[in-house]
Amino acid sequence: MATRPGTAPADSGPHVFTVSELNRTVRDLLEGGLGAVWIEGELSNIARPASGHLYFSLKDRDAQVRCAMFRGRNRLMDFRPDAGMQVRARARVSLYEARGDYQLIVEQMEPAGAGALARAFEELKKRLDAEGLFAQERKRGLPRMPRRIGIVTSASGAAVRDVLKVLARRFPAIPVVIYPVQVQGERAAPAIARMIETAGRRADCDVLLLVRGGGSLEDLWPFNEEAVARAVVASPIPIVSGVGHEVDVTIADFAADVRAPTPSAAAELVVPDAGELLQTLERLRRRLQAAASASLRRREERRRNVESRLRRQHPERRLQQLQQRRDELELRLRRIGTRAITTRRERLERIDARLRRASPLARIERLRERLDSNRRRLDGAIRADLKHRDARVAALSRALEAVSPLATLGRGYALVRAAEDGRAITDARQVEPGQHLDIHLAHGRLEADVTRAEPGDGNGDRTTNEHE
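Below the sequence we write its predicted structure tokens.
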């Protein structure tokens, strides 16, 4: 038997509810009995009518419940709910009287699980970015050739093995320091921050790699903690982050000086390829060697040009040219003689071959005697000609030396020049008392001042000089 709340049963019989009364009574009982509750589930059956209200269902593996969120409430949400999203909602339990459907009136809703983490990620990212922690001008460049590389990661994870393999392949000579730390779980973030601070205090590395293998958002969450981000920014050592796979992005990536898509890529960023470096060094060595060789050639050519100009201007140059001409004539005579002898010898060999083929011994003997006679005559003629040419060249050399100005100076003569302009003095009338003169002798030179000048008759001019 059912009775209406607040009424006593009548003697005339039980109270009969209308459908509307029953639904309204149940609604009052639900709303007054439970009040506001928190519920978590997966969104489904989402409807967005033109009124701006939001209707959907929350479900788990075994059940579902209808929900309504009115326009004034859903405008306060900072995310767009979609089917399949896991959410947490604050709602009042109620009943839709028109259909008798049990439902929840949602007043507040937020992502749950990964969704909550994503929301926390965005909030922290915006706040730290506003503080300037992600500013590009704050970030430092990486050393081109680090002396030592530090790796902040789990000592037993796959990431450290991948990084060490890449470093050993690209440049095995650079030493590596591993700073082992927990990279997953609630205690991971403080441990990572402390290890980064420790590496900065020790200052035994030029660059740090902050790496971890792939995983879910929850697995990578320690790298989204504020403590880790601030430790990365405060580090005195440049930091390269390589957390997860290419699609994974963490707060540490934004705070780091350089972000790499994977741990292996982070290792490739901090060291050059040894093979490529050796090829570059070889190219530079060849370029330097070519430049040095070209410079030496230019300097040598310039030296030869200067030396050639000096030689051409020297008084002995003409004599050397004549001597060289004599040597060339002598060499030509020798070549002519040698060529004649060679020609005769070749002819003799041909005749000797013919004689051998004919094999008349007496004729061969006569021809050999004739050949010897011709050879002696030819040698005598060549020697006589060479002797005649040597005598002629010697005579030319003596004639040249006789007219050489050096020979004239050697016989006691002197070359007198005015000191101020270097003009040659050939007449006493060209100088005046007190004028300074330079006197060149066969060996050395004199400087003199004119005390008196006596013009002569052209046969024996005389100038009196006072030597200094």
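Residues 316-358 form the longest helix (43 residues).
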